[in-house]
Design goal:
426 residues, alpha/beta, Metallo-beta-lactamase, Chain A, Serine Threonine Protein Phosphatase 5, Tetratricopeptide repeat, 7-stranded mixed beta sheet, 6-stranded mixed beta sheet, 13 strands, globular
């Protein structure tokens, strides 16, 4: 029998349930009344729902894929006579901002006031950017999440009310304090409900290593993120309702998760900046900064989505730009030209293929990945090269823990597997 989401956090914290048994980032989809008048929907992205005398307040409303289901769960809880007064968007990622529509339909049918959406002032610019780069966002998210048919949306529910630093929303006698914090995004909001000692963190807490790296997405802000987490901890919340993962109960558990996540971000940030100040190249920094095992092994900090190595890169990008310190990379030759030259020096593409496969068998997957990629770049129509690239990247998928790494390596493996099949038919 599945463990209720209200109990999972405690069982993971105590070790009664392991991360391998239940991935914290993907809790079983469920609804729970986590306190009197507070509902929590565990979905692709979570929604927190507060009953007030003047209607509901929701912090995040779901993705295009889960919006109807979330609406149904909320309606099953409160009935059909309670309107949604206000939706607070924690940030503009599409898994959090697509659930207002069904509640607007309710309002139109019942003659209620249209729900109001409140968010940070940077969110409209995010939606504008999403429209401008819809094709690109579709491509990278298909790769990241291994969803071949995903199409990026071009219509968004823009906020009715925005704020800059802090803002208070009062509905039905309950105050919701909104605080801006650049972290995973530049438009992030965390919400504090003082009368209930409840904290809605959005994706500043996601029950795994924070999404502060993400190799295919725009800039993240680890230092400011950590500052925000410490500000949240200072409020001494007794209930933490995250953007992903399980709700957390008890002041002690809330403190530990907030402060340990802040410590991880501060460690990576400070170690990276220290090496940058010494003049180190990006390559040296990436392979030098290692998060302490005692921290990364926490059940709420395991790298099952993002990877701390990617956070290092994002810190470097934030302060250092895109030049990595290697002069050959400032104005490089085309990758295919470099690959052809290396193949020539090695004695042919076959030598690259053989060595890539041998290295992969020895567990040297990073080196194997370079050589397999060079083989296909040097001879794009070489079936054996694509077969090797498919094999090496499949092994990389099996080796990795982070979904983002698995997505990229998996896409490469599938691409070359399909190409090898085509070439084998010629």
């Amino acid at each position: 029998m599945p463990i209720p989401i209200t109990e999972l956090a405690e069982k993971l914290m105590t070790g009664e349930v392991t991360v391998e048994e239940q991935n914290p980032f993907f809790p079983p989809g469920d609804f729970a009344e986590v306190a009197d008048g507070i509902g929590f929907v565990a979905a692709m992205a979570n929604s927190s729902v507060f009953k007030t005398d003047d209607g509901l307040v929701m912090v995040d409303t779901g993705s295009p894929f889960s919006a109807r289901a979330i609406h149904g769960k909320v309606r099953s809880w409160v009935g059909d006579s309670v309107r949604l007064d206000t939706a607070i968007f924690s940030h503009g990622h599409i898994d959090h901002v697509f659930g207002v529509g069904p509640f607007e339909e309710d309002a139109e049918k019942s003659g209620w006031a249209t729900p109001k959406v409140v968010a940070h002032e940077a969110m409209p610019a995010r939606f504008d950017r999403y429209k401008l780069t819809a094709g690109w966002n579709g491509a990278i998210n298909r790769r990241q999440f291994s969803v071949p048919g995903l199409e990026w949306p071009t219509e968004y529910r823009y906020p009715d009310e925005t704020y800059r630093d802090t803002h208070t929303v009062e509905v039905g006698g309950i105050e919701f304090e909104l605080h801006h914090c650049r972290g995973e995004t530049d438009d992030h909001t965390w919400t504090w409900v003082p009368s209930r000692k409840a904290l809605c963190t959005g994706d500043l807490i996601i029950w795994c290593s924070p999404n502060a790296g993400n190799p295919q997405k725009v800039q993240r802000y680890p230092r400011e993120w950590a500052i925000g987490l410490r500000e949240m901890a200072a409020l001494e919340p007794e209930m933490l309702l995250p953007g992903h993962g399980m709700p957390v109960f008890g002041a002690e558990h809330c403190q530990v998760i907030l402060l340990d996540t802040a410590e991880l971000l501060e460690f990576i940030h400070d170690e990276t900046v220290s090496l940058m100040n010494e003049g180190a190249r990006l390559d040296e920094i990436i392979h030098s900064v290692k998060v302490p095992e005692a921290l990364i092994e926490k059940p709420y900090l395991r790298p099952v989505y993002d990877d701390p190595e990617f956070i290092v890169r994002n810190v470097y990008r934030l302060y250092g730009g895109w030049y990595d310190g290697n002069p050959a990379n400032l104005k490089p030759a085309p990758d295919a030209a470099v690959a052809a030259e290396v193949a020539l020096l090695a004695g042919g593409v076959a030598a690259l293929i053989d060595r890539a496969l041998a290295l992969a068998d020895q567990g040297e997957l990073r080196l194997a990945g370079h050589l397999a990629e060079m083989a296909t770049l040097a001879e794009p129509e070489n079936r054996d090269a694509h077969a090797a690239r498919a094999s090496v990247n499949a092994k990389r998928v099996a080796h990795e823990t982070a979904l983002m790494s698995k997505g990229v390596f998996g896409a490469a493996s599938r691409e070359s597997d399909a190409r090898a099949r085509e070439l084998g038919e010629d």
